[in-house]
Amino acid sequence: MTRTAEIVAVGSELLTPEKTDTNSLWLTEKLNEAGVEVMLKTIVGDDEARLEETIRDAVKRSDIVITTGGLGPTEDDVTRQVSGRAVGRELVYHEELEAHLRERFRSWGREMPEINKRQAYIIAGAEILPNPNGSAVGMLLELPGKLLVVLPGPPRELMPMYENFVAAKVRALAGDIHVRRRMLRVSGMGESAVDEAIAPIYRAYPHVQTSILFSKSEIEVHLTAKSESEDEAARVLDELAEKIRDTLGLAVFAMNGETLEEVVGRMLSESGETLASAESCTGGLVGMRLTEVPGSSAYFLEGAVTYSNEAKMRTLGVPETTLAEHGAVSAETAEAMASGIRERAGADYGIAVTGIAGPGGGSAEKPVGTVFIGYSDKSQTRSMRFNFPGDRFLIRWRSSQAALDYLRRRMLKAKAV
Amino acid sequence: MTRTAEIVAVGSELLTPEKTDTNSLWLTEKLNEAGVEVMLKTIVGDDEARLEETIRDAVKRSDIVITTGGLGPTEDDVTRQVSGRAVGRELVYHEELEAHLRERFRSWGREMPEINKRQAYIIAGAEILPNPNGSAVGMLLELPGKLLVVLPGPPRELMPMYENFVAAKVRALAGDIHVRRRMLRVSGMGESAVDEAIAPIYRAYPHVQTSILFSKSEIEVHLTAKSESEDEAARVLDELAEKIRDTLGLAVFAMNGETLEEVVGRMLSESGETLASAESCTGGLVGMRLTEVPGSSAYFLEGAVTYSNEAKMRTLGVPETTLAEHGAVSAETAEAMASGIRERAGADYGIAVTGIAGPGGGSAEKPVGTVFIGYSDKSQTRSMRFNFPGDRFLIRWRSSQAALDYLRRRMLKAKAV
Predict the structure, then answer these.
(1) Contact between residue B302 and residue B347 where contact means Cβ atoms under 8 Å apart
(2) Which of A64, A125, A179, A190 sits CB 3.0–4.6 Å from A5 for a disulfide?
(3) What average pLDDT is seen over chain A?
(4) What is the pTM (predicted TM-score) of this model?
């Protein structure tokens, strides 16, 4: 039997247009890993009546209820008393908790404000969950076949508390279910094309939950296997992942959720080769992504952001005639940029981007979204034209993705020879 | 009397670790603008019992209830019948809706699948909200002093539907309340320092809601004024914003939510001056941010990502002795990089970043997070040292912020002379 959970996030700031609850994403992952399904999430402010009704309904409907936030020392922090009321329990004062709090404040060189005394009250019968990273302890109340868990809001307090004191209880309640997750990343194909190609494969694995998500410029294939045997879950997942890769081929660039810049970086590290980049419309985004990987200084030598034609000529040696005859956004310029930066930096590979990110600058022949990617290695220089939909942000992001992916595919081909 | 609202997002995919409801942020902004306060948000899957209880409780407790999603044609799309049930109303078949749907499918060159017939059923007594961007119409049910609004999930269907058919009804229910919002951005100060400095000011404006948010490398000061007079709300907001700027001084870089790259870009556009950048540890992030602004090609001439020492010497003319004596991460190198790129590009301003983003590369003297920003104009070259906390991502982001902010402050000083 699959156990069910609900998550209640408490805090007025989570009901503004600027912020929302994100703790529940992390908690959902942990609960799913234990084989528990999250059925409902609520975000509520410091409204006592609504919070009480929410917790009472959740405990009635679901096996595990986790609240986050609202455990601070101020009047607005109502989760402590309201969660007690929702399950018909008093709050009990714990002298040793107050003493501990006073000592902590003293170790910070301060006296404990009297208001913090409220944090020494605990739901009767609940286990106290220590908080090494803050003043609010958590609470765990075991009810017949159910768990009510009350956690603080800050992620760095909530996460270790869950891992250290809650995870084992959840696992005990959920029973011997093992869940393994895996994420493949796919580039150069659309969401529906991926689904069409792999649906016949994953449908043959009804015990693996497969979800296909589109994110900016790539497709994520999430696989989740549940089994009573840990080995079996891992085996089924590996088998399905391999079959998907065999079907999609080169389009699968990551078998374990790695980013494209990590994959390219690993290929370069392994071969001991080096790279340089030349960018126009992406303005540094390709270099930024490549250098987001720790240790990238071992293979990334230099990047040029040549926004003006003068810079393209001066720094990359793009011939004036190329710019005049074909324009700055052209296959010829992209190739000259790629070979130019490769030679300048003395790198094994050069990659270049030139295009029209908009909103201005488009024409009938080269509308906004027209992008050329240039590639150069010791034996060849090539380019590819793309037409990206979207706004300036998305066109730039997709251009950087196309540049890294084109590099990856050309490197694989060069190595396959 | 302030009207209250609840938002219910429907969809199993919103209960996964990868995705959450974001429609509610946009809806909250719209509701707040009309003077309506959002009291609770629920995210629920295709679980009929939980969804029915959620909608019934929400309608009981709050003046406005908006559901999003779950209006598609499949069995999993349960919002239509469940929301009817929750308010005790039947669904009524609308022949003209089916005819309209059939016609639409025909215009796409397809026959309407029989399953889509379900989208022609509407809660008895509800107003039909047309959907030019999809097949699911919305519904608006007026109950005594209350509104139940049922909207489709995709943002490009939901947003125009709300603007065109819901906003006016919400405003009519909320009464003549005018809400004005304004956001100031502050750089170079911490959250609590900002709060300490401006709390005495904003406390004198109890009718303006002030919230201070920290985001990666800057502080956002959100001001929301509610008034029965539109002019009064705007006047109060302007007055408070001016007082905050007078107190915080140069640290306030935006009075209307502009990004730092937009502010720097506007300064350069207005003066007709040009800029070039040289980056080491940020790897292109400064160039990327500067060129995110449409029209930046008018003032941004060139960027150099000089990751290796060779590139720093070759492209920027940093003397080998400077690198040998002071190291790549030093005030001297940052200054040589800034003046080097300025001269190379023939720009009015040069800005440079060199530092240790980690996780490796730190030392006792220059730990991870040590960053030097270099600045150069026609009359002077200077630098500043920073020690940023955080991981590689945050150190790089904060370095780019420091570079843009140092440029902004130096430009302001140069112009003030």
Answers:
(1) yes
(2) A64
(3) 93
(4) 0.81
